[in-house]
Amino acid sequence: MSKFTFALAFMTATLVQGKDRREEKGASAVEYAILVAAIIAVVAAAVAAIGTDLTDKFSRLFD
Length: 63
Hints:
Elements: H1 3-62
């Protein structure tokens, strides 16, 4: 293997490896976005379910 072929193979492997790392970072960002959306949905459902009960209890407490 000549020095040029070795250098070309090394640069190609380095570029491919760097591309994989960028794709993994993007995937983790998407996963975090999905996780945050799920947490927001759970909190919104809990507030919707419990919110009316709390409003009634505080209304009776201060009346």
